[in-house]
């Protein structure tokens, strides 16, 4: 059976024949039944999947995809094959003519993690024979840790049970980023599509394991890197920020604060480059989006947003009169339509990896781009001191241009050239440079030192601190009966109180049989390549013990060193859905701990893990606390009394409305 020569698609009013990747997908799926399409964003994987369903003459195709892409799938199916019967978000439509024509059921990923999912799958399989299952953005069903997600289990259950009903079942997995953090992700995708356990694929991030997984992905799938033939102009705009060096030295105590300052320097350059239908991208948003909006509107442009918590500007930017769209990482996946109107992207703060940047650019450099040229601009700040040149942005740009990651090795077979600097390591480089500069008035950054009182310390000072702050119990009570924002402001004004607390904490834990942060380190040492947030990190000992093994974001009211970000932990400078693990080791303190859990829910990926240690005697209602976590979208895996502590481990199993989260100790 060959692809009919007359087949063509209508895209933006143009008759377009299938490209080579789309034809190859259809033919290989017909011949092999199980395959992965790992082609880049914007190369036409959706059309390839639709074409495949017709080449194998699938009477019933199940498409599992992100919620945001359901309208696009529906529209493409009806545009390409208007005679198709399509139903949305319904496991069991009532079709009496299933053996005639071509039917499609579109289900979003979240539908596979509900309590009712097994029953719906059972009814579906009893009623119909499935010919093809397409899992779009299949990396959202990958196995990230030692605990398989309910979503992945249910998708695998659908595939394996559908195979029992139909031995000729075809399965197509689609993802431009099958490996992001670790090799376990890629291995799990191979196992999901084939239904075969692959114990031969090692998960430790070694070169041999990368190449072995690369071989498996190449054998099972195809990967097209061919984009529409448009010219891409990449332009860097130098921005001298030497006049801000003193301010950065004094105030840039975290990545976020530094980027807030540098955004102010970039804004004049950004304003000069604005044209109607320009997207301004910023990886960090807090204290940055407001600056951009005010400046852009001040020039007379209309502004919309497409970010994690506010996607209200998307439709009006594509179909309406909005001139400028301010976007964050939410734009990088599952979005179509920007290419119809936009050919200009300005990177205020770019993503951290080349894979993320590739996905972002793929929203514009994709089929349906109506312009001949795509312009990508990046304002690049730099500082000078007696001829010495240093640029934070140039370092970021070089990082994006280098192919040195585990993902590049496993997916594209690119041999790593070395270890990338983590975000915190890169930020430490910046701080060291700022300290070396001699320009202007010298300002020293004094970091609070945690100390333990020794016999030769002035007893008068020890007595003063004890009288002023109280013993460990009184300090715990004061912090627990205040709102975190209040405690944060108080400690920022008087870091000595924070130092005193941790001095007493060091003494207290000497008598404990179990020390929570040490248990966290042991647990994380058995895993690799995770993105972890340590909420209330104190001495940042978790990050210190696991340097090079995981990316650890450390947050506390006061920063003991440059790797710690000072903030109210109810509002941390992280993007939505970026964490694999969120940890609270004796740090759920304050009247608003629900805000902490809300922040963990916001920043954790689906299937990410929440880790909590609390003093059992401090918990008024353990079952009520558990119910609160469950209402916040977490599935409890462990609830154990360990010594004097209560230990909880939970998986984020569903997205919930963050404003509804209420948790009490």
Report on the architecture of this protein.
The chain contains 23 helices and 23 strands. The protein has 665 residues and is α/β, with parallel strands linked by helices. The protein folds into three domains: 9-222, Rossmann fold (3-Layer(aba) Sandwich), CATH 3.40.50; 231-436, P-loop containing nucleotide triphosphate hydrolases (Rossmann fold, 3-Layer(aba) Sandwich), CATH 3.40.50.300; 447-665, Vaccinia Virus protein VP39 (Rossmann fold, 3-Layer(aba) Sandwich), CATH 3.40.50.150. The strands form four sheets. A seven-stranded parallel beta sheet has the order 5-6-4-7-8-3-9, sandwiched between helices. The longest helix has 18 residues, at 255-272. It is globular.
Keywords:
665 residues; 3 domains; Rossmann fold; alpha/beta; 7-stranded mixed sheet; 37% helix; 20% strand; 23 strands; single chain; 7-stranded parallel sheet
Give the arrangement of secondary structure elements.
Elements: E1 9-11, E2 14-16, H1 20-32, E3 34-37, H2 45-55, E4 60-65, H3 70-80, E5 85-88, E6 103-108, H4 117-127, E7 132-136, H5 150-165, E8 170-174, H6 183-194, H7 207-220, E9 221-222, E10 231-240, H8 245-251, H9 255-272, E11 278-282, H10 289-298, E12 303-306, H11 314-319, E13 324-327, E14 344-349, H12 354-361, E15 373-385, E16 388-390, H13 392-401, H14 406-412, H15 423-436, H16 459-469, H17 472-480, H18 484-493, H19 495-508, H20 516-525, E17 531-535, H21 541-545, E18 551-556, E19 564-566, E20 579-585, H22 593-603, E21 604-615, H23 622-631, E22 634-642, E23 645-652
Parallel strand pairs: 3-8, 3-9, 4-6, 4-7, 5-6, 7-8, 10-15, 11-13, 11-14, 12-13, 14-15, 17-18, 17-20, 18-19, 20-21
Antiparallel strand pairs: 1-2, 15-16, 21-23, 22-23
